[in-house]
Amino acid sequence: MKKHSVIIRDATDLPQAIAEIFKLLGPTDLARRSVFVKPNILRAARVQECVVTDPRLISETVSFLQGAGAQVMVGDNPMPDQRSSSEGEIAGYCGIVDAAGNTYRNIGRYPKKMRKPNNLLREFYVSREILDCDLLVSLPKYKSHELTTMTLAVKNHFGIIPGGFKPAIHALFPRIDDFSRVIVEIYETRPPDVIIVDCMEVIDAQGKRYRPGMIIGGDNGHAVDYACALMAGIDPLRVPTVRVAREQGLFAPEMIEYNGAFRRIHGFSLPFVFPFRNSIVEFVSRILYRIWMGRVPVIDADLCSGCRSCENVCPPRAIKGKCIDYSKCIKCYCCLEVCPRRAIRIRYKLV
Ligand code: SF4
Ligand code: SF4
Protein backbone atom coordinates (compact mmCIF):
# COMPACT_ATOMS: atom_id res chain seq x y z
CA MET A 1 0.00 0.00 0.00
CA LYS A 2 1.36 3.44 -0.87
CA LYS A 3 1.86 6.10 1.79
CA HIS A 4 -0.92 8.62 2.44
CA SER A 5 0.07 12.27 2.85
CA VAL A 6 -1.66 14.45 5.43
CA ILE A 7 -0.45 18.05 5.29
CA ILE A 8 -1.36 20.49 8.05
CA ARG A 9 -0.89 24.18 7.38
CA ASP A 10 -1.64 27.40 9.22
CA ALA A 11 -4.23 29.32 7.18
CA THR A 12 -2.99 32.80 8.08
CA ASP A 13 -1.34 33.06 4.67
CA LEU A 14 -3.99 31.09 2.78
CA PRO A 15 -2.57 31.45 -0.79
CA GLN A 16 0.83 30.24 0.42
CA ALA A 17 -0.69 27.31 2.36
CA ILE A 18 -2.75 26.19 -0.67
CA ALA A 19 0.27 26.47 -2.99
CA GLU A 20 2.33 24.29 -0.61
CA ILE A 21 -0.37 21.60 -0.47
CA PHE A 22 -0.60 21.43 -4.28
CA LYS A 23 3.18 21.39 -4.57
CA LEU A 24 3.42 18.43 -2.18
CA LEU A 25 0.50 16.48 -3.65
CA GLY A 26 0.98 17.30 -7.33
CA PRO A 27 0.28 17.14 -10.17
CA THR A 28 2.88 19.65 -11.23
CA ASP A 29 1.53 20.56 -14.66
CA LEU A 30 -2.00 21.99 -14.46
CA ALA A 31 -1.97 23.95 -17.73
CA ARG A 32 -5.15 23.39 -19.79
CA ARG A 33 -6.27 20.57 -17.50
CA SER A 34 -9.94 20.54 -16.48
CA VAL A 35 -10.21 20.78 -12.71
CA PHE A 36 -13.43 20.39 -10.76
CA VAL A 37 -13.55 21.95 -7.28
CA LYS A 38 -16.18 20.51 -4.94
CA PRO A 39 -16.83 22.47 -1.75
CA ASN A 40 -19.41 21.49 0.87
CA ILE A 41 -22.60 23.47 0.19
CA LEU A 42 -24.91 21.73 2.61
CA ARG A 43 -27.66 24.35 2.61
CA ALA A 44 -28.19 28.10 2.40
CA ALA A 45 -25.96 29.30 5.24
CA ARG A 46 -23.72 32.24 6.08
CA VAL A 47 -20.02 31.54 6.60
CA GLN A 48 -20.26 32.25 10.34
CA GLU A 49 -22.62 29.26 10.78
CA CYS A 50 -19.60 27.03 9.95
CA VAL A 51 -21.65 24.41 8.06
CA VAL A 52 -20.43 25.20 4.52
CA THR A 53 -16.90 25.60 3.13
CA ASP A 54 -15.46 29.05 3.80
CA PRO A 55 -15.69 31.06 0.53
CA ARG A 56 -12.13 32.35 1.11
CA LEU A 57 -10.76 28.81 0.71
CA ILE A 58 -12.75 28.40 -2.50
CA SER A 59 -11.69 31.70 -4.03
CA GLU A 60 -7.99 31.20 -3.18
CA THR A 61 -8.03 27.63 -4.53
CA VAL A 62 -9.64 28.83 -7.78
CA SER A 63 -7.07 31.64 -8.05
CA PHE A 64 -4.21 29.21 -7.55
CA LEU A 65 -5.54 26.77 -10.17
CA GLN A 66 -6.30 29.47 -12.72
CA GLY A 67 -2.85 30.96 -12.12
CA ALA A 68 -1.41 27.57 -13.05
CA GLY A 69 -3.38 27.59 -16.32
CA ALA A 70 -6.12 25.11 -15.34
CA GLN A 71 -9.70 25.29 -16.62
CA VAL A 72 -11.68 25.40 -13.39
CA MET A 73 -15.28 24.57 -12.53
CA VAL A 74 -16.84 24.85 -9.05
CA GLY A 75 -20.11 23.22 -7.98
CA ASP A 76 -21.99 21.03 -5.52
CA ASN A 77 -25.38 19.39 -5.02
CA PRO A 78 -26.86 20.88 -1.84
CA MET A 79 -29.81 19.30 -0.05
CA PRO A 80 -33.15 20.32 -1.54
CA ASP A 81 -34.25 23.53 0.15
CA GLN A 82 -37.85 24.72 0.33
CA ARG A 83 -36.71 28.34 0.56
CA SER A 84 -34.51 28.42 -2.55
CA SER A 85 -35.62 27.86 -6.10
CA SER A 86 -32.27 26.51 -7.32
CA GLU A 87 -28.93 25.19 -6.08
CA GLY A 88 -27.34 28.33 -7.57
CA GLU A 89 -29.46 30.44 -5.24
CA ILE A 90 -28.27 28.36 -2.26
CA ALA A 91 -24.62 28.71 -3.34
CA GLY A 92 -25.17 32.44 -3.86
CA TYR A 93 -26.54 32.84 -0.33
CA CYS A 94 -23.43 31.07 1.03
CA GLY A 95 -21.15 33.53 -0.82
CA ILE A 96 -19.81 30.67 -2.94
CA VAL A 97 -20.96 31.92 -6.36
CA ASP A 98 -19.04 35.17 -5.76
CA ALA A 99 -16.03 33.25 -4.42
CA ALA A 100 -15.97 31.00 -7.50
CA GLY A 101 -16.10 33.95 -9.89
CA ASN A 102 -17.29 32.87 -13.31
CA THR A 103 -16.41 29.22 -12.62
CA TYR A 104 -19.58 28.29 -10.73
CA ARG A 105 -21.79 25.68 -12.48
CA ASN A 106 -25.07 23.90 -11.76
CA ILE A 107 -24.01 20.24 -11.73
CA GLY A 108 -27.37 18.66 -10.97
CA ARG A 109 -28.81 18.80 -14.47
CA TYR A 110 -27.20 15.92 -16.40
CA PRO A 111 -26.34 13.14 -13.95
CA LYS A 112 -24.91 9.89 -15.20
CA LYS A 113 -26.30 6.54 -14.06
CA MET A 114 -23.69 4.31 -12.42
CA ARG A 115 -24.12 0.54 -12.21
CA LYS A 116 -22.07 -1.26 -9.55
CA PRO A 117 -23.43 -4.81 -9.22
CA ASN A 118 -21.10 -5.70 -6.33
CA ASN A 119 -22.03 -2.67 -4.24
CA LEU A 120 -24.64 -2.38 -1.53
CA LEU A 121 -26.03 0.51 -3.59
CA ARG A 122 -26.05 -1.05 -7.04
CA GLU A 123 -27.37 1.87 -9.07
CA PHE A 124 -27.08 5.58 -8.45
CA TYR A 125 -26.62 8.88 -10.24
CA VAL A 126 -23.49 11.04 -10.15
CA SER A 127 -23.02 14.54 -11.56
CA ARG A 128 -21.32 14.12 -14.93
CA GLU A 129 -18.88 16.98 -14.32
CA ILE A 130 -17.31 15.01 -11.44
CA LEU A 131 -16.64 12.04 -13.71
CA ASP A 132 -15.41 14.04 -16.70
CA CYS A 133 -12.74 16.25 -15.09
CA ASP A 134 -8.98 15.56 -15.25
CA LEU A 135 -8.41 16.54 -11.63
CA LEU A 136 -10.92 16.51 -8.77
CA VAL A 137 -10.33 18.81 -5.80
CA SER A 138 -12.48 18.37 -2.68
CA LEU A 139 -12.87 21.19 -0.14
CA PRO A 140 -14.78 19.70 2.83
CA LYS A 141 -15.80 21.54 5.99
CA TYR A 142 -14.60 20.18 9.35
CA LYS A 143 -17.86 19.37 11.19
CA SER A 144 -19.48 17.11 13.72
CA HIS A 145 -22.46 15.08 12.54
CA GLU A 146 -25.28 13.42 14.49
CA LEU A 147 -25.39 10.29 12.32
CA THR A 148 -21.77 9.80 11.18
CA THR A 149 -20.06 11.47 14.21
CA MET A 150 -18.02 13.72 11.90
CA THR A 151 -18.43 14.88 8.31
CA LEU A 152 -15.14 15.39 6.48
CA ALA A 153 -13.63 14.35 3.14
CA VAL A 154 -15.54 11.09 2.58
CA LYS A 155 -18.94 12.44 3.61
CA ASN A 156 -18.37 15.55 1.47
CA HIS A 157 -18.45 13.18 -1.50
CA PHE A 158 -22.09 12.31 -0.81
CA GLY A 159 -22.60 15.65 -2.60
CA ILE A 160 -21.58 14.18 -5.96
CA ILE A 161 -25.11 12.71 -5.93
CA PRO A 162 -27.70 15.24 -7.18
CA GLY A 163 -29.78 16.76 -4.35
CA GLY A 164 -33.07 14.90 -4.58
CA PHE A 165 -31.47 11.43 -4.67
CA LYS A 166 -29.69 11.83 -1.33
CA PRO A 167 -32.77 11.55 0.95
CA ALA A 168 -33.80 8.45 -1.03
CA ILE A 169 -30.44 6.81 -0.22
CA HIS A 170 -30.93 7.65 3.47
CA ALA A 171 -34.35 5.99 3.31
CA LEU A 172 -32.97 2.87 1.58
CA PHE A 173 -30.16 2.42 4.13
CA PRO A 174 -31.39 3.66 7.52
CA ARG A 175 -28.87 1.53 9.50
CA ILE A 176 -25.66 3.47 10.16
CA ASP A 177 -23.42 0.51 9.21
CA ASP A 178 -25.10 0.12 5.81
CA PHE A 179 -25.28 3.86 5.21
CA SER A 180 -21.56 4.22 5.98
CA ARG A 181 -20.70 1.43 3.54
CA VAL A 182 -22.75 3.19 0.87
CA ILE A 183 -20.99 6.52 1.55
CA VAL A 184 -17.62 4.79 1.14
CA GLU A 185 -18.81 3.11 -2.09
CA ILE A 186 -19.89 6.49 -3.49
CA TYR A 187 -16.53 8.02 -2.50
CA GLU A 188 -14.62 5.22 -4.22
CA THR A 189 -16.57 5.74 -7.47
CA ARG A 190 -14.34 8.73 -8.19
CA PRO A 191 -12.11 9.70 -5.25
CA PRO A 192 -10.71 13.23 -5.25
CA ASP A 193 -7.07 13.75 -6.23
CA VAL A 194 -6.48 16.61 -3.82
CA ILE A 195 -8.37 17.27 -0.58
CA ILE A 196 -8.14 20.46 1.47
CA VAL A 197 -10.29 20.48 4.63
CA ASP A 198 -11.52 23.86 5.86
CA CYS A 199 -10.65 23.80 9.56
CA MET A 200 -10.28 27.57 9.92
CA GLU A 201 -13.36 28.26 12.06
CA VAL A 202 -15.49 25.37 13.30
CA ILE A 203 -18.48 24.65 15.53
CA ASP A 204 -18.83 21.50 17.63
CA ALA A 205 -21.91 19.40 18.45
CA GLN A 206 -22.84 21.75 21.32
CA GLY A 207 -22.64 24.82 19.08
CA LYS A 208 -19.35 26.02 20.65
CA ARG A 209 -17.08 27.95 18.28
CA TYR A 210 -13.33 27.31 17.79
CA ARG A 211 -10.77 29.01 15.59
CA PRO A 212 -8.09 26.39 14.81
CA GLY A 213 -7.01 28.47 11.79
CA MET A 214 -5.83 25.40 9.84
CA ILE A 215 -6.30 23.75 6.51
CA ILE A 216 -5.59 20.03 6.19
CA GLY A 217 -4.50 18.61 2.84
CA GLY A 218 -4.27 15.03 1.65
CA ASP A 219 -4.54 12.57 -1.20
CA ASN A 220 -6.55 9.84 0.54
CA GLY A 221 -9.87 10.93 2.07
CA HIS A 222 -9.95 8.07 4.60
CA ALA A 223 -6.49 9.02 5.91
CA VAL A 224 -7.46 12.70 6.03
CA ASP A 225 -10.63 11.83 7.98
CA TYR A 226 -8.58 9.66 10.34
CA ALA A 227 -6.22 12.56 11.07
CA CYS A 228 -9.10 15.04 11.50
CA ALA A 229 -10.84 12.74 14.00
CA LEU A 230 -7.57 12.44 15.96
CA MET A 231 -7.46 16.24 16.09
CA ALA A 232 -10.94 16.20 17.65
CA GLY A 233 -9.54 13.94 20.36
CA ILE A 234 -11.48 10.76 19.56
CA ASP A 235 -10.60 7.27 18.46
CA PRO A 236 -10.94 7.76 14.66
CA LEU A 237 -12.48 4.31 14.27
CA ARG A 238 -15.55 5.76 16.01
CA VAL A 239 -16.26 7.53 12.73
CA PRO A 240 -18.17 4.76 10.91
CA THR A 241 -16.89 5.59 7.40
CA VAL A 242 -13.27 5.50 8.69
CA ARG A 243 -13.96 2.12 10.29
CA VAL A 244 -15.46 0.74 7.04
CA ALA A 245 -12.50 2.01 4.99
CA ARG A 246 -10.04 0.47 7.46
CA GLU A 247 -11.83 -2.89 7.31
CA GLN A 248 -11.87 -2.78 3.51
CA GLY A 249 -8.14 -2.00 3.31
CA LEU A 250 -8.67 1.38 1.65
CA PHE A 251 -6.09 2.97 3.93
CA ALA A 252 -3.90 2.07 6.90
CA PRO A 253 -3.20 4.45 9.80
CA GLU A 254 0.45 3.36 9.91
CA MET A 255 0.87 4.46 6.28
CA ILE A 256 -0.02 8.10 7.05
CA GLU A 257 2.87 10.53 6.68
CA TYR A 258 2.23 13.82 8.48
CA ASN A 259 3.69 17.05 7.16
CA GLY A 260 3.22 20.07 9.46
CA ALA A 261 2.48 20.39 13.16
CA PHE A 262 -0.32 18.13 14.40
CA ARG A 263 -2.69 20.08 16.66
CA ARG A 264 -5.53 18.92 18.90
CA ILE A 265 -8.73 20.99 19.00
CA HIS A 266 -9.17 20.79 22.75
CA GLY A 267 -12.74 20.60 23.99
CA PHE A 268 -14.32 19.88 20.58
CA SER A 269 -17.43 17.89 21.45
CA LEU A 270 -19.04 15.28 19.26
CA PRO A 271 -22.49 13.68 19.31
CA PHE A 272 -23.45 11.04 21.85
CA VAL A 273 -21.30 7.93 22.25
CA PHE A 274 -21.69 5.13 24.70
CA PRO A 275 -19.64 5.42 27.86
CA PHE A 276 -17.51 2.53 29.11
CA ARG A 277 -16.34 1.53 25.63
CA ASN A 278 -15.78 -2.19 25.06
CA SER A 279 -17.15 -3.19 28.42
CA ILE A 280 -20.08 -5.28 29.60
CA VAL A 281 -21.75 -1.99 30.64
CA GLU A 282 -21.66 -0.80 27.04
CA PHE A 283 -23.04 -4.13 25.85
CA VAL A 284 -25.97 -3.98 28.27
CA SER A 285 -26.52 -0.27 27.58
CA ARG A 286 -26.78 -0.94 23.88
CA ILE A 287 -29.45 -3.58 24.38
CA LEU A 288 -31.46 -1.28 26.66
CA TYR A 289 -30.94 1.56 24.22
CA ARG A 290 -32.29 -0.45 21.30
CA ILE A 291 -35.30 -1.59 23.25
CA TRP A 292 -36.26 1.51 25.17
CA MET A 293 -34.61 4.63 24.02
CA GLY A 294 -34.30 6.61 20.86
CA ARG A 295 -32.32 9.76 20.15
CA VAL A 296 -34.96 11.58 18.22
CA PRO A 297 -35.18 15.04 16.66
CA VAL A 298 -37.57 17.48 18.35
CA ILE A 299 -38.70 20.77 16.83
CA ASP A 300 -38.63 23.82 19.09
CA ALA A 301 -41.81 25.59 17.99
CA ASP A 302 -40.57 28.93 19.38
CA LEU A 303 -37.44 28.91 17.21
CA CYS A 304 -39.04 27.38 14.10
CA SER A 305 -39.80 29.85 11.30
CA GLY A 306 -42.01 27.39 9.40
CA CYS A 307 -39.70 27.36 6.35
CA ARG A 308 -40.47 23.63 5.77
CA SER A 309 -36.90 22.78 4.72
CA CYS A 310 -36.92 19.86 7.19
CA GLU A 311 -40.25 18.61 5.85
CA ASN A 312 -38.91 18.75 2.33
CA VAL A 313 -35.70 16.84 3.07
CA CYS A 314 -37.12 14.15 5.40
CA PRO A 315 -36.74 10.80 3.53
CA PRO A 316 -39.77 8.96 5.01
CA ARG A 317 -41.93 12.14 5.13
CA ALA A 318 -42.15 11.95 8.92
CA ILE A 319 -42.44 15.73 9.44
CA LYS A 320 -45.67 17.67 9.04
CA GLY A 321 -45.47 21.31 10.07
CA LYS A 322 -43.84 21.36 13.51
CA CYS A 323 -44.72 17.74 14.37
CA ILE A 324 -42.66 14.58 13.84
CA ASP A 325 -44.22 11.15 13.47
CA TYR A 326 -41.70 9.00 15.36
CA SER A 327 -43.20 5.79 14.00
CA LYS A 328 -41.84 6.86 10.60
CA CYS A 329 -38.60 8.60 11.64
CA ILE A 330 -35.46 6.63 10.61
CA LYS A 331 -33.10 8.89 12.67
CA CYS A 332 -31.06 10.04 9.70
CA TYR A 333 -30.85 13.59 11.17
CA CYS A 334 -31.07 15.27 7.74
CA CYS A 335 -33.61 17.66 9.31
CA LEU A 336 -30.98 18.86 11.81
CA GLU A 337 -28.52 19.55 9.05
CA VAL A 338 -30.84 21.64 6.93
CA CYS A 339 -32.58 23.66 9.66
CA PRO A 340 -31.42 27.27 9.30
CA ARG A 341 -32.63 28.25 12.80
CA ARG A 342 -31.05 25.46 14.87
CA ALA A 343 -34.65 24.79 15.90
CA ILE A 344 -34.23 21.01 15.89
CA ARG A 345 -32.49 19.38 18.82
CA ILE A 346 -31.81 15.81 19.82
CA ARG A 347 -33.75 14.50 22.78
CA TYR A 348 -33.92 11.11 24.45
CA LYS A 349 -37.37 9.66 24.13
CA LEU A 350 -39.00 6.37 25.02
CA VAL A 351 -39.96 4.64 21.80
S1 SF4 B 1 -37.70 23.23 12.17
FE1 SF4 B 1 -36.16 24.41 11.07
S2 SF4 B 1 -36.18 23.58 8.97
FE2 SF4 B 1 -38.05 22.87 9.98
S3 SF4 B 1 -39.63 24.36 9.41
FE3 SF4 B 1 -38.76 25.02 11.38
S4 SF4 B 1 -37.10 26.45 10.86
FE4 SF4 B 1 -37.60 25.33 8.98
S1 SF4 C 1 -37.61 13.43 11.14
FE1 SF4 C 1 -35.48 14.05 10.77
S2 SF4 C 1 -34.27 12.35 11.58
FE2 SF4 C 1 -36.37 11.58 11.33
S3 SF4 C 1 -36.38 10.66 9.30
FE3 SF4 C 1 -37.08 12.77 9.07
S4 SF4 C 1 -35.20 13.93 8.53
FE4 SF4 C 1 -34.55 11.93 9.37
- Apparent shape: globular
Mind telling me the CATH class of the largest domain? Alpha Beta
Euclidean distance between termini CA atoms: 46 Å
Q: Could you tell me the radius of gyration in angstroms?
A: 19 Å
What is the name of the CATH architecture of the largest domain? 3-Layer(aba) Sandwich
Uncertain runs: none
Describe the protein's architecture and organization:
This protein has 351 residues and is α/β, with parallel strands linked by helices. The protein folds into two domains: 256 residues, 3-Layer(aba) Sandwich (Rossmann fold); 71 residues, Alpha-Beta Plaits. Helices cover 31% and strands 21% of the residues. The protein contains 13 helices and 17 strands. It has a seven-stranded mixed sheet with strand order 3-2-6-9-12-1-13, with helices on both faces. It has a two-stranded antiparallel ribbon with strand order 4-5. Strand 10 and strand 11 form a beta hairpin. The radius of gyration is 19 Å and the shape is globular. One iron/sulfur cluster binds next to helix 12.
